[in-house]
Amino acid sequence: MPQRMNAAVRAVVRMGIYVGAKMFFVHEGYQGMVDGGSNIVQVSWESVSSILQRGGTVIGSARCSAFRNREGRLKAAANLLEKGITNLCVIGGDGSLTGANLFREEWSGLLDELAKNGKISKDDVKNYSHLNIVGLVGSIDNDFCGTDMTIGTDSALHRIIEVVDAIMTTALSHQRTFVLEVMGRHCGYLALASALACGADWVFIPESPPEDDWEKHMVEKLSENRAHKKRLNIIIVAEGAIDAQNQPITSEKIKNLVVDELGFDTRVTILGHVQRGGTPSAFDRILASRTGVEAVLALLEAKPETPACVVSLSGNHIVRLPLMECVKMTQAVQKAMDKKDFKKAVKLRGRSFENNLQTYKLLSQKETTAEIPKSNFNVAVMNVGAPAAGMNAAIRSAVRVGITEGHKMLVVNNGFEGLSKGEIKEFHWTCVRGWTGQGGSILGTKRTLPAMYLEQIAEQIRTYKINGLLVVGGFEAFQGCINLFEARPQHKEFCIPMCILPATISNNVPGSDFSIGCDTGLNALVETCDRIKQSASGTKRRVFIIETMGGYCGYLASMGGLSAGADVAYIFEEKFDIRELQANVRHLTEKMKTNIQRGLVLRNENCNENYTTDFIYQLYSEEGKGVFDCRKNVLGHMQQGGAPSPFDRNFATKISAKAMQWLTKKLQDNFQDGKVFVNDDDSVCLLGMRTRTLLFQPVVELKKETDFEHRIPKEQWWLKLRPLMKILAKYKISYQVPSSAKLENIECRTREGNEAS
């Protein structure tokens, strides 16, 4: 059953109406198509109002055995023709999409049969000769090859992590072991991603069964953890977990093993359909909106010879892929598992899945001291700038990967100021236990730049023999490392490799589409907008004006607007004047005449020094007098707090591991005469996600891409999504079709596949 699909339904309907198409709902899936009648209804703009924040799907879904037979498909074709429908957007898993493709291939034959039976005329056969199909993948299991994320997966991860975080507090009190069973009958993505996000002790997934003597290894590991005073053990099991002989590994079997061998107090929690429910996450809403709009464009451009396509996510890019190629690759995963070719199964799942598995293994299995090679390098890690959720996950990952690489890992408290004062200490494997789910910055972080402390910092680098530096932070981290790089001629101590990981809710660091923490901040904003909108459900004709954080960067306001269904979002990057403000008021006045009598306006905190939140509130209140009343909210630091989202935990964990491996290579390549010395431009890099790839970019090059006065990149990818928000809010504007609007080859996409997703 497709879950969290309402954002996609809304986007498809509204984009369809925007381009002048008649839009229909088919209720109850293929069953509704076969039954026809009131199951197929024309819909309007208002039909999809107030559904963004709702889980499930407003149009219903049902399994349909009749559609599997030609007779059922014949009835479905007749019912579609009755309404003049020849374009179909199908939201579902590989079974639903395969059925849609078969329906499309049979279409002309079905029309001939209907004409022969006298159900339709020869003109109908001619006029409706071709059926266009576009698929959107809705599945919480993320089990469809060809897309990095299926719609619903991120929300399911939110539900799992909420449960794990709650369980952690109770288990810590009682010294317990918890076995959590999550969904995933044929795919272990949810189990693997949630294990990575919460630092689980062990994970069982169908694509990568444990070794034959796994029972012995698991018992030893749990015993060792408890000996090191770890009060809580978490084991995550996918419902389809198997051993190397394809025999099921159940949560009950694992519990019995732990109780019998170790005598630990062990509880089983089966999450079940909890994972399917709840409010969709911001990520899922944006993904569903982007793919829904692209699906309509794909249908408009489809020709009889165009193969059925599926709209997918590749890195941060929306792409179209041949539907049946993706289905065949998805089915190939199960065939590989049936043949016990588990390496192939993991590879077919894609580089994102493979990378998750490698990172989890790297961080969860501590090697013995004898097995770890000593590198004799000292690497320091620190946080700089404002706190952002996910910083602690990045530090944990860096410390543990550094230890496995043989380095002595040093942590710096309180940013560059702490570095100048020698607030430095060595960290071991267990020092970062339980850090993944912690919000804020445990190490402490400050916005202070190093320019005023260069002498003292150089002295501390000498004293502690620091050979490499990993800086996790926002714009100050980027600026600070530029300061250190530019001071190299005066201070040779700064001639060491340095890497910056962007971490800020503002998402204003150049060189990366996403920063650690911005997903958590966005979810906090969207959750608040949902509550504010809900508060107006009993009060008609009300407009809410909400001020968001972000400095001069409009990312939070823009993406929050797209996720929460805002009418307008004012940002610094897109200049506006009093005429536009008046046009927005008129737009809301017209909206109040419909049955959607509620408005949401977002304003980035620094979008304009004169058009303040108070000014906009007073303008709307005056101009809307007698039509609507206004309320204002300044969200403030609430957006910085809270536990990190699953996306931020995993993004931070993976890019931090990659950064440490890069630092190791730099240290090895530039070690001579008993010391590390490196002075080239690419020795100080920022690791960021660019469209589909993780890239190490020299800060010298990124300087050219940066507006230092306003602390934002000169070009920002998300600005291209702003027209979507306006179209979905019923503004009459032009929409430029993105360059990705062509059918790609799945093999090509898989090779390019993004490691960061």
Automatic annotation (TrEMBL):
Catalysis: reaction(s): beta-D-fructose 6-phosphate + ATP = beta-D-fructose 1,6-bisphosphate + ADP + H(+)
Residues noted as binding ATP in the record, renumbered to the chain: R63, C64, G93, D94, G95, S96
Protein's pathway: Carbohydrate degradation; glycolysis; D-glyceraldehyde 3-phosphate and glycerone phosphate from D-glucose: step 3/4
GO molecular function per UniProt: 6-phosphofructokinase activity; ATP binding; metal ion binding
InterPro entries membership: 6-Pfructokinase_euk (IPR009161), ATP_PFK (IPR022953), PFK_vert-type (IPR041914), Phosphofructokinase_CS (IPR015912), Phosphofructokinase_dom (IPR000023), PKF_sf (IPR035966)
Coiled coil stretches, renumbered: none
Domain Phosphofructokinase span(s) in chain numbering: 5-298, 378-663
Binding site for Mg(2+): D94
Catalytic residues identified in the record: D141
Binding site for beta-D-fructose 2,6-bisphosphate: 447, 504-508, 542, 549-551, 605, 631, 637-640, 711
Function comment: Catalyzes the phosphorylation of D-fructose 6-phosphate to fructose 1,6-bisphosphate by ATP, the first committing step of glycolysis.
Designated name of the protein: ATP-dependent 6-phosphofructokinase
Species in which this protein is naturally found: Monodelphis domestica (Gray short-tailed opossum)
Chain's gene name: PFKP
